[in-house]
Every structure is written in structure tokens, then in C-alpha cells.
Amino acid sequence: MDKKRSFYTGLKCRECGKNYPKEPIYVCEYCFGPLEVDYDYKAIKKVLNKETIASRHPSMWRYRELLPLQSSPSVGLQVGFTPLIRANRLAERLRVRELWIKNDAVNFPTLSFKDRVVSVAMSSAIEFGFTTIGCASTGNLANSVAANAAYAGLTSYVFIPSDLEEGKIIGSSIYGSNVIRVDGTYDQINRLCSEIAGLYDWAFVNINFRPYYSEGSKTVGYEISEQLGWKLPDSIVVPMAGGSLINKIYKGFNEFKDLGFVDNRHCKFYGAQAEGCSPIVNSLKDETKFIIPVKTPETIAKSLAIGDPADGPYALDVINATGGYGENPGDDEIIEGIKLLAECEGIFAETAGGVVVGALKRLIETEKIGRNEIIVLCITGNGLKTREAIENKLSLSAIIAPKLENFQELIESNIKNKEKIYYASHS
Ligand SMILES: *Cc1c(COP(=O)(O)O)cnc(C)c1O
Ligand SMILES: [Zn+2]
Question: Ligand 2 mean position to 311 CA, how many Å?
């Protein structure tokens, strides 16, 4: 197998179709549309098949012909091929037949799906000769850029809102990154970073490297189809921030259809956002053709708090074209969703995971998703990074002395009271 051969041919404007060479650019100079990576699919079809993929190392790079690098990746070699688990107990609670969870809460190295996009964008930036890497982030992206830059020996600048969860701030600072905390919203930070990217010769993974970055998300779609036994689900529920992930899972599914790796099963796409910042879902519900930005996001799901989503219009297209829908649970439902997932499946997800579970619950109750469908939920980040959201919502046991009688006393009083063994410690 020729590892060095590249099948990506350049960039292409998503709006007007104009072709561009392999460069670190991201907007069309004619129509200002976003640029996207293009491939020689005919050549890929000749060299790639399901058996070849299945025989490879279990990481996202088993699909390397469909990723935009010239040579082997230099960071993130272990990223991806995270578990897809059959969630029987959660399915029972929600009264659906077949539910699967794609668990990127255990991705490597920083426990979120952002490790996928960063490994592509940073490897690409290294190919183009960049030595300073940056990002505008709602938290997880900053963690991944900081960690991978440390591994690659590059300088990094990560820009985050100053009110992020402690776990996300520490999870960037520990790697020796330059963590720039900004008193502003993600959208304000993104604008600032666009200006900086124009002035400094830095690779901002989600700005000037966005075409490369976003391709990494396709691997979520590839893995789900392979792990389902080379088939697509009937419905998929995806959390949306900038709206890139949902678009790229859709692109990944379609590429697999075109390559003949899966049959033509129709998959409906459902987008999930938090009530306190749901510009894309609002647009679906209000049936507006355009997206009205949210100026001041207010939600515990900080990782999804993008008020003016760059790929929002395309996310709307995917959802509408596939006959899906969107939901936007409130903070209480998000917390309930986190707990439900943990108690049923042993998976501790961050707030974005609570958003997805809460959205699924609503979608089933309103019969937007049928109880007999094959459903996939995308869990994209780890709960230990957003402890603040649930810290005061859990019950802890009373503290006992290390003596058998004390334990028995506790158990007996518990039985007597027909109470649980737990007492609320914070209320
Ligand atoms: C960034 C992020 C998303 C969504 O990303 P977009 O591609 O911007 O829509 C989802 N979940 C988590 C945990 C994230 O950090
Ligand atoms: Zn164009």
C-alpha cells in the first residue's frame, strides 16, 4: 500500500465551484464563499475497498485516502476509531428499539471529537511550513490544539472566552500553550482571530485552515458506517456549534455511498443545540430561510455556544434535505440528559452530550424519530471537563467511620426509611 500517495486535488468554492490549488486559503476571491477540499474519487475507487480499510490500524487514518494531506500525518496518529456501542439500557428508557452511541468522549489525546479536526489541520499546517498554530475556541478545540502543538514541538496560541469551565482552561494551560483569555463571546473572539490571522503568519486551525480542519469530521461518519457493519442508520443526532460536524458526517456518508461501501439507505439528520444558544434550531422551528445570530449566548453547554455559526446555512440544508429536524433542550434537560446517559450506559459526557440526549428525548416524544428506527447519537466530549454543570446536582453518601457497625447502621437506616443510601450533600 502506497502510504505517500495523495488523492486530494486542491480546493473548490462551495458556492461558485471555482477551483483553487493546494494552498492555506479558505475563502473564494470571487464570491467570498467558503472553500472545500476536492479529491480524485475515481482514483480512490481504484485503490480503496472495505477489506483494505478493515485491515488497517484502528484510527481515523484508516481512511487516509479521503483526507487532505500530501504525506503521512505528523500529529494525531492514534486519533479516532472510538467505540460505537449498542445502548440497550438507554434505548429501553427512551422506549426505542435500536440505539447506538458514538463515543468521542474517549478520543485521544484530549477526550473530544476535536482531536480529529486538529490532527488534520495541524498536519496540513506542518506540511505548509507553519510553526505557530492558533485557534478561536469554545474550549475543546483549545485543549486539542494545545496538546497536539506540544507533541509536535510547535508554538500555539489558543483564544478562549474567559468564562469557560475550569477543566477546559486547565486542559489547555497544562501543555505550555499561550492561552489568551478574552472577555467576550466566541463570535467576538473569532473576529479577533481572523484579524490576527491576516497580520501574523500563523495557522489558525478553524480559520485559515478551516477547509482542512473540517474534513477531519468526516471520519465520524466513516467510522459509524463501518462499525454498524458497513451500513447507515435511519437517524443520527448531532450536536451543532458552528455547524461543521453535521455537514461533514453527511459528506462522509455520501462519499461512502458513492464508493459503494454502504447501500443507499436514507439517513435523516437531526441537529441539537442548547436552548440558550440555538440559532440553527430556531431557524428550523421558525422556518426562516436564514439564520438570526444569537448575540449573548446563555447556556451551560458552553462548547456549543456559537451565536453566529459559520456553517449554519449548510447545516440547515443537510437537515432539510434529509427530512430531519432540530431540538434545543434547556439547561435542566441537559443535566438530566447527562445523568441519564451516565446511569444507563456508564458514559460521562460533557454538556454537549446532555444536549444530544435531551434533544433525542424530545424528538422521540414528538414522533419526529420513530421508535423502530436505527438511531445513532453522537457524544462528542468528556464530562470531567464540564464538572461545574453537574457538581451541585448530585447526591453524595453521608460520611461514615471506617467501622462495620457504622456501615450497617447506614444500611439499616436506609432500609428503614425506604430511602436511598444517598443524602443530598449540597442542598
Ligand atoms: C466543537 C464541538 C461540537 C460541534 O462542532 P461544530 O463542528 O462547530 O458544529 C460538538 N460537540 C463538542 C463537544 C464540541 O466541542
Ligand atoms: Zn466562489
Answer: 15
Task: For residues 128 and 157, state if they share a domain.
Answer: yes
Residue ranges of the chain whose pLDDT lies below 50:
1-2, 421, 424-427
Per the CB < 8 A criterion, the answer to whether 264 and 286 are in contact is no
> Residues 54-82: pLDDT tens digits?
999 999 999 999 999 999 999 999 999 99
Q: Do residues 152 and 74 make contact, with C-beta atoms less than 8 angstroms apart?
A: yes
Task: Based on the fold, state whether residues 133 and 151 are members of the same structural domain.
Answer: yes
Q: pTM of the entire structure?
A: 0.96
Residue 103 CB less than 6 A away from ligand 1: no
Tell me: the pLDDT tens digits for 376-400? 999 999 999 999 999 989 888 889 9
Residue 254 resides in a domain: yes
Q: Clarify whether residues 202 and 265 are in a common domain.
A: no
- Same-domain pairing of 269 and 250: yes
Residue whose CB lies within 8 A of the most ligand 1 atoms, among 140, 218, 379, for a mutation test? 140
- Ligand 2 (ion): residues with CB under 5 Å are 13, 15-16, 18, 28, 30-31, 33
Domain presence at residue 348? yes
DSSP state of 181: E
Asked if the structure places residue 394 within a domain, the reply is: no
Q: Is the CB of 241 under 6 A from ligand 1?
A: yes
**What does DSSP assign to residue 267?**
-
Residue 111 CB–ligand 1 contact under 6 Å: no
Please name every residue paired with 203 in a beta bridge, in sequence order, or none if there are none. Answer: 133
Length of the chain: 427
Boundaries of domain holding 191: 3-78+114-213
Helix (H, G, I), strand (E, B) or coil at 320: helix
